Amino acid sequence: MVSSAKMSTLIFNWLLSVLSYFSIDCGAHRLWSHRSYKAKWQLRVLLAVFQTLTFQMDIYHWARDHRVHHVYSETDGDPHNAKRGFFFAHVGWLLCHRHPDVTRLGKKLDMSDLIGDPIVKYQHKFYYPLLILTWLTVPISVPVYYFHETWLNSFLVNCFRFAITLQTTSLVNSLAHIGPGGRPYDKRINPRETTAVSYLTFGEGYHNYHHAFPGDYSASEYGWSDNWNPSTAVIDMFARIGWAYDRKATPESVVRTRIERTGDLAAKSPKLTMVYVWLDIVMGMFYVTWFVWLATLYNTTDISEN
Fold it and tell me: What pTM did the predictor assign?
């Protein structure tokens, strides 16, 4: 990355990582796990293709694990139970056998909506061939044939992209449950508002709100024009062309009542003014492009050569 890979390869992989984040946030998480909005088949196909690119399990298993996580959060039935430590919640749960309660309780959940979705069903059935195509073949071949990159460089940068997207999305399960942050909506639960996680995951760090109101399509109290939440902006964009619809949002009165009943008003972040919204956008863009800028400091390959 910092010595021989071409800048065009890095930028191409950065774009793939952005699409990966959106497919997890808007697709596997907000659409298929929580049904917080509905999408036409065109959008579901796009989200399914790029979700396969993430190499983070197929949509059915991803959504099933996430639903179990919400229903049995911080118990043995939670696949990435944060009470078992930061490492376990982050990636350790992927490296060992699951607790029997995860499997037992997962079988009790209603997954009929996903089973009945032909796009989810197709991806689940042909997941590994699709994975070879979307995660391995295309991302590695494009830089080689179009940017004259070496096969080794293209493969290694692709692996780095995967590692970064996996580590950052995993922060929602670890840092957003264990790390610093306020709990303005429900102080009885572990999930908290974590700004850094929001920047790195395109708006998934408003986690205390999300666990209090999991059905909200924005996964936060505020929309993309008030806080850093590009995933909400993407859903709204597709809603403008009719591909996304029936977006569910929590009424302000319900949020206020919940804060008074279970929350901590002192920990609540205010709705940002326009000046701070733009500062939020600048900070968010810095976080999500950091590895491109880091490589730029050292990379001597002239992008014009490509």
Answer: 0.89
